[in-house]
């Protein structure tokens, strides 16, 4: 049984992902996917919590961030970034949180977020889990006695060591330059969302199927350069079009190939097509596939 699902995903840029560490450098040197259980002060945005993996000082890191804040940040009444770093007692060998410790870490996180956001003019923006530490990040107005609030919460968890700090960050560089995903990371998030929808539709992702791609170009010659670059990759041309009403990128190309649709496979071929399109002056616009049920 086959059901078509349309996916349009756009990559804006591709950047090497490598971030420097150090509690302060984590933000300025450059997991759990559930939404926090606590309620934050309303700041006029729709919360959009997502997680992704990153290379943090050559170590695996999991970042959990409210993408929705991008539409309203920076908030002028919250010019200070505040963080608390909790040392995990039983991390995995790769430095991420272990299954046996995830529940208590989630409890600590909820307690901190609830207390901090209710007691101070602050908002929780995200966290990093890496190298055996879990770091929570907030943006504050007045930071007076923030350290006391952290201590009041952590006294209930005497087995956990913690550290904290604050820094003025009016432009929210810590959010935009560290926590917020780079274009390649954001594309991987988008791909995962689509794959989740495939699975919700009853697709177990084991069956290869046709995957369609759309790319747009400024000129016919750019389109031909792209086709030359992928001529040995077994893609089939579905359609070539042109329409001046599309604006600057008035020349379209639709191609297809039978591919796997697991996360790693999708990320690999989508990002490769984007890179080639970018190199010839084009724009990779998105992909489409079908839900396949056994």
TrEMBL record:
Residues 48-180 form the DUF695 domain. Residues 189-289 form the Regulator of ribonuclease activity B domain. It holds the Pfam family RraB. InterPro entries: DUF695, RraB-like_sf, RraB_dom. It comes from the Bacteria. This is DUF695 domain-containing protein.
């Amino acid at each position: 049984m086959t059901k078509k699902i349309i996916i349009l995903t756009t990559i804006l840029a591709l950047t090497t992902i490598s971030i420097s560490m150090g509690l302060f450098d984590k933000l300025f040197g450059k997991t759990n996917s559930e939404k926090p259980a606590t309620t934050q002060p309303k700041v006029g945005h729709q919360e959009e919590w997502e997680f992704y993996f990153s290379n943090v000082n050559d170590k695996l890191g999991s970042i959990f961030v409210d993408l929705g804040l991008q539409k309203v940040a920076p908030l002028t009444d919250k010019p200070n970034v505040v963080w608390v770093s909790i040392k995990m007692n039983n991390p995995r060998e790769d430095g991420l949180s272990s299954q046996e410790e995830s529940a208590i870490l989630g409890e600590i996180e909820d307690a901190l977020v609830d207390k901090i956001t209710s007691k101070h003019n602050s908002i929780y923006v995200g966290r990093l889990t890496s190298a055996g530490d879990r770091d929570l990040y907030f943006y504050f107005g007045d930071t007076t006695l923030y350290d006391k609030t952290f201590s009041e919460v952590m006294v209930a968890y005497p087995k956990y060591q913690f550290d904290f700090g604050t820094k003025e960050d009016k432009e929210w560089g810590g959010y935009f330059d560290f926590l917020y995903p780079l274009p390649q990371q954001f594309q991987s998030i988008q791909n995962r969302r689509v794959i989740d929808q495939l699975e919700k539709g009853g697709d177990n992702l084991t069956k290869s199927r046709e995957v369609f791609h759309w790319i747009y170009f400024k000129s016919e010659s750019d389109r031909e350069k792209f086709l030359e670059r992928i001529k040995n990759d077994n893609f089939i041309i579905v359609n070539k079009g042109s329409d001046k009403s599309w604006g600057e990128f008035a020349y379209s190309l639709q191609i297809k190939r039978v591919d796997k649709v697991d996360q790693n496979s999708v990320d690999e071929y989508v990002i490769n097509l984007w890179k080639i399109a970018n190199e010839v002056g084009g724009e990779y616009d998105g992909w489409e596939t079908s839900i396949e049920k056994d």
